[in-house]
Specification:
The chain is mainly alpha-helical. The chain contains 3 helices and no strands.
Length: 67
């Protein structure tokens, strides 16, 4: 299996939530709740390790996103 984490990470730091969730579900065969949990964990890790790569602040991230 190809490592898709760089692609997932790029979607996360660029505030492309749906795209990241789609790949998480596709690659790991996660249910929607599992994909959201994995996304949240990865988001926290990336905010700690790559804070300057994010295109929006933590406060703005996910604004106007409704699932």
């Amino acid at each position: 299996m190809t490592d898709r984490w760089p692609e997932i990470d790029e979607h996360i730091v660029s505030n492309r939530i749906i795209q990241a969730l789609v790949i998480l579900r596709e690659v790991f065969e996660y249910s929607i709740p599992q994909a959201i949990d994995a996304f949240s964990a990865r988001y926290r890790l990336l905010r700690e390790t790559r804070p300057d790569d994010f295109t929006v602040s933590n406060e703005e991230y996910g604004r106007n996103f409704y699932s």
